[in-house]
Amino acid sequence: HKIAIGDPKSVPAGQYAEQIFKNLGYSDAVTPKTVYANDVRAVLAWVENGDADCGLVYKTDAAISDKIKIIAEAPEGSNKPIIYPVAILKSSQNIDAAKSFVDFLQTPAASAIFEKYGFTPAKK
Predict the structure, then answer these.
(1) 72-89, pLDDT tens digit by residue?
(2) Are 13 and 37 within 8 A, CB to CB?
(3) In 86-115, which positions are buried (b, 16+ CB within 10 angstroms) versus exposed (e)?
(4) I need a surface site. Which of 4, 26, 69, 114 has the fewest CB within 10 A?
């Protein structure tokens, strides 16, 4: 059996996968079966086409495929929280547009879009 994950050297999802295996005490059992992909979409593709028996991807990536089934989710606390921050660069040449975009991201309409695609807005 093959378990696909992103290469932890360069793929954050692979780093999260290794954290989960370690925190659950599965590292020794899983490591010999692990195959490493260059990115999460490759992990997903390997599972879709049968090159891997299962894989660890973000729930939001799994949701885009109708060829796979989510069989488990990482237990709460088994990995660091996955956060996608937003910031405005001081060097931005479009400060007003950037501020407007950041403001929009904090609206209920933006939250609804994120939630539709499986993301959970951060608590303020």
Answers:
(1) 999 989 998 888 899 999
(2) no
(3) eeeeeeeeeeeeeeeeeeeeeeeeeeeeee
(4) 69
For 31-105, where are the alpha helices, taking DSSP H only?
Answer: 40-49, 59-62, 95-105
CA distance 24 to 78: 7
Q: Which residues contact 82 (CB under 8 A, 6 or more apart)?
A: 12, 16, 58
Residue that the structure tokens 């370690």 belong to: 22
Q: pTM of this prediction?
A: 0.80
Q: How far apart (Å, rounded) are the C-alpha atoms in residues 16 and 57?
A: 9
DSSP summary character for residue 17? H
